[in-house]
Each structure stands twice: as structure tokens, then as C-alpha cells.
Amino acid sequence: MMRVMKCATVFGVAVWMSAMAGQAQQGGAQPEVVAQPLALATLTIQADKPVAKVSPTLYGLMTEEINYSYDGGLYGELVQDRTFQSSRSDTENWVPVPQGTARGMVARDMTTGPSAALTASLKMTVTRADAANTYGLRNRGWWGVPLRANTTYTGSVYAKADKDGMGAGVRVSLISNGSGKVLAVAKLPVLTADWKQYNFTMKTGGDVSASADNQIVVSVDHPGTVWLQLLSVFPPTYKNRVNGNRSDLMELMAAMHPQFLRFPGGNYLEGDHINERFDWKKTIGPLADRAGHRSPWKYQSSDGMGLLEFLEWCEDLKMQPVLAVYAGYSLQQEHVNPGADLVPYVQDALDEIEYVTGDASTKWGAERVKDGHPAPIALNYVEIGNEDQFDRSKSYDGRYAQFYDAIKKKYPALQLIATTPVKGHVMDVLDDHYYRRAEQFFGDTHHYDKADRSGPKIFVGEWATREGTPTPNMGAALGDAAWMTGMERNSDLIILSSYAPLLTNVNPNGMQWQSDLIGYDANSSYGSPSYYAQAMFASHVGTEILGADLQGAGDRLFYSVTRDSAKGVVYVKLVNASSAKQDLKISLSGAKDVKSTAKLISLSAGTTAATNSISDPKRVVPVETTVKGVGKDFTRSVPGYSVEVLELSAQ
Length: 651
What we know:
Elements: E1 5-10, E2 13-18, E3 32-33, E4 38-53, E5 59-62, H1 70-74, E6 94-98, E7 103-109, E8 121-128, E9 135-139, E10 152-161, E11 171-176, E12 182-187, E13 196-203, E14 214-220, E15 224-234, H2 247-254, E16 260-263, H3 267-270, E17 293-294, E18 300-301, H4 307-316, E19 320-325, E20 329-330, E21 334-335, H5 343-357, H6 363-370, E22 381-384, H7 396-410, E23 415-418, E24 429-436, H8 438-442, E25 457-465, H9 474-489, E26 494-499, E27 503-505, E28 518-520, E29 525-527, H10 529-538, E30 544-551, E31 557-564, E32 569-576, E33 582-589, E34 598-604, E35 623-627, E36 633-638, E37 642-649
Parallel strand pairs: 4-33, 5-16, 5-26, 16-19, 19-22, 22-23, 23-24, 24-25, 25-26, 27-28
Antiparallel strand pairs: 1-2, 2-3, 4-30, 6-9, 7-8, 8-15, 9-14, 10-13, 10-15, 11-12, 11-14, 17-18, 20-21, 28-29, 30-31, 31-32, 32-37, 33-36, 34-35, 34-37
Helix pairs in contact: 5-6, 5-7, 9-10
């Protein structure tokens, strides 16, 4: 059969393709890409003429409970459904496991629980059991229970028995799914007829292989009735925080050098309904006082990641908090009218700010002290709501004004962020969101170049190139990096920016939104190409924007130039979104002295589809080298499909 050939143009490069689907698989000629070097372009940098200051908070993190980002992700808890809220006793979260001749039954008891928040419990009635034949329940964890050798796991459970002195208590075990071997075990003291919390530790031996193919089992070895609630098991956490976070994910975020954290979200702040919003007062204090709530992404949030845990996350990564307060709108078009109806919600926001910033003499500052954090926490930015442009009642103008006036009256120094433009009222900062394809970002990198500098400052609070799943590919990284050059050139106006979503669980049914910056399963994690582009930019920010002009480069080369005046370093960021290499003459006008060698950090790939994954986490990563022959004028050949940072020593 005759092959029909046709020519297309991709990024300015001729590509010849066979019109016969499957021809290459049958041994026919492979499509060929002929990418000739692009003509010499010139980047002229005014090294002695800074045009504006770079925002010191330009790059940060945005987070919300989506894609199992907290429970099953960053939050260290290993037990899924630790409060036994499944509607049936034989759900996959909690499965009865009678050993040998043991017999019993389990049921949810709605009449007794250890606290006002947890008023129900799991009742385990054992009719037959002994030391060799135990009756219990197994928990699968979050797509597995990750265990490692010589590691101590801490846990706790609220429990009571049908009478004082019931037997020898209860066992909690970590067990291999494959072999059934007990890898670690804790034995609780004798139970009483009253609710008590029991703390325990379990340590694995040196022969345990790193694996998530494990389960958690709570078992009883004698007849009787036991009630259980809030069974929790934690691995070692980042900086050994009690109720803390996964170390590997925290380390990936730390490498991004984020300057702020916007929390608690996103849609997670609003909830589908008003009673499903992030009600911060129900997320503080002991875990037994946190009932949890339904998230808008259709799964239960334990609220283990509460307000104080967000603030501790900020402290651990040396970020400042950007606190979003609920402003009277929920996703299913429920809203609170401005005026008297909104007053309790405004007061709730004032109380929340007081919890963060107040000292022990204030009501809510004293609550934070009681929760274990004596020192007030510095707060500069508060966001009023989230994406209120979707509120069809058009009530945001009035709601925003009511929040703004009340917060400014008590906290005049706070910068307040509007989620959509408002009429008739001051906006300190406006939150812009962009979810786009790479081509759209390539065409809009000058979006803010001529924006009005007399209006509010800009927070690009959510943005991403949505290409690649579950995490972005190299094509998305090029779109992201191109967009970042535009934000960086305009960082006198754009004071904050954060990619979203930040995290995703890559297991089946673990993701609700693609593409996401960092992927993980129970046992490991990785950064996407977009993650590395973010880290490269945020690690080489500078303090001043230098004037620069690019000529002769076509429409696929993007740049930004900043300088750290104290270090005497100029950062030249280059993004080549073409498949062809770009020869570029770089001239540093006004520079007195330029060191002849420079550091180069480069992220590149052979195709835009190249990506990282849980099984191949380092396929596309930055490479650091030294460039020689640098001076006031020098030529650099920028590879195709690449993101580069040149670190020049220039006076």
C-alpha cells in the first residue's frame, strides 16, 4: 500500500509524518524531526540599571485537601479511618480477622465515645479467643502501611472494656501482608470500664524490608467486649513533630525554598456546603476533639491537619503564613448575606487571626498557648474567601467590604487579599488564577508587562500548565518556566505566586485533579519536571530586576534577569520551548567586571512528553555544570526543550 506523506510544522520545525496509523509499529520508516539551530539572537542586559525590586515572597506554596494531599499524603497518620466512621463493619478499611477458632463480631456503637466530638465508637464483642487464636480487625492503611527496618512507630488508642481488669488488654501489631509475619507489636495495659487513652510504641527489627505491603491489626486474645476509638499510628515525622508530617514530602518542599504557605485552600476552605467549610475551631486542640468533616473532593478529612499544624508546617520550612479565612460562600452556591447574617463569620475570622497572632492575654492567643505554642506567630497576609467569582449571588462585594473593614479596624497592618475584583472598596492585593496549556502560557508571558502599577498588588495564587498526568511532563515544565519569567520580570507588581495543586497520591482513585507538582505513594515520592523548574527559579531569585531586551529570538525563547546586589551575582533564566537549539549572544552592558566562568543549572529533555514517575523518579532532573568563556559579551547555545539558570559573577 502506498504511504501518503504530509508535512506539519511544530514549533517552527518541519516534521514529516506517515498518514498510516501503526506503520512504524509494523517496521516502516519512523517519523523524522529535523531541527536546525535557530539564528543568532541577542539578549542585552543593563547590568548597572535595576528597574525594580524583586518581591522577596515571590515564590511559595498553595495547599488544600485534594488528591489525598493531607490524609493519605503529607499528614503522617498511617491508619485510614482512625475514628471508625465506615458505615459497615466489613469495609476495606476495617476487616475482621479471626485467627483459628476465634469468634466474635464488630459493630458501630452510637451510644458511647471518649469525647464530645467523638460520641460513637467501635464495639468488638469476642465470644471465643485465646493466646493462639486471637480475634481482631485489620486496617490496610493508605494504599498500604509503609514500614522500614529499625524504626520506631508511635501510636495511641482510646479504649474501654465491659468491666474493669479485662484480661491482659489489647494488642496492636504491624504485620506483613505477604508472609503474615508480625514485624512489630505493642501490648496495651489491662483495660478498665472507663474511656482512657493508651499510648504505645512499636519497633521493627533489622530484617524488615522497606515496603508498604503491610497492615495494622488490633486484636484481643480472650472473650469479652472492647470499645475502640481514635486508633492512630505514626512513623517518624519531619523534625520529630508530634502529629507531624512525612519527612520525604517535607524535604521535597524545603528544596523549593518557599517563602510562604497559602492555606487551608482552595475549595477545601469553602466546602460544598456551609457546614462543610474548614471550621478552624473544630481543628485545634486534642485529636479527640476533632470530629473531622467531609471535603469537597468527596472523602472524609480527619482534621488532623488543623490550624496549628499548618502554622507549624510554616515554621518547619521557614515560610510565612498566608491565611485564607472563610468568607460566607460555599461551592454548592450557598452563601451568607452581608449584614447581620455575616457578623458571626466575620467574628470567626477575627478570632482566627487572634489565635495566630495573639499573646497569652487574649482569649484565642491563650488557646494557642494551651495547644502547645506559646509564642505568637507573625502574620502579614489574610485572604478573604476563595474564588468568589463563582458565587452567582454576586454578594462578594458586600461580604468582602464587611470582612475588610472589621479586620483592618483591629489589625490595620495586615494586607488583605481579594479573590476577585470588587467594586467600591479598597483591595490591597488581588488573587489571580490561571490553569492553561503550555501554548497559552507561551503566548501570554507579557501579561503583566504593562499592567497598572497604581492598583492592587497581585497574588498569582493558583496557576499551572495542565499537561501530563498524574504529574506534569517536560512540556508542562516549559510552559511553567516561560510563565515564571513573566512573573519574575514583573515581581514589583506580583508579590506572591504559588503553583497548584501541590501534591497528589498516584495510587488508583487517589487523584481528583491533574497535573500536580509532586507525586507519591505510601512508600516513596518524586518531583515532576515542573517541580524542578520551580525549584530552579525559586533558588535563584535575586533582589533586583535588571533591564533586558531580547532581539531576533522568535517566539519560543523566554527570559528573565535578576541580580543579587549583595552577592554580586546576576541570574539569567532562559527557557527554550523549541526543539531546536538557540544560539544566543549575551551582552552585559554597564558591567565593570565579569568572571570568566559561570555556574549553569539546566533542565532538559529530548521530547516534551518526557516525565518523571513513581517508578522512574529521576528521569528529568537538573544538571549543574560550569560554563567557561564568559565575559561582558559571550555566546551561549541554549539546547532545545530546556530550562536554564546562568549564575554570573558580575560587578
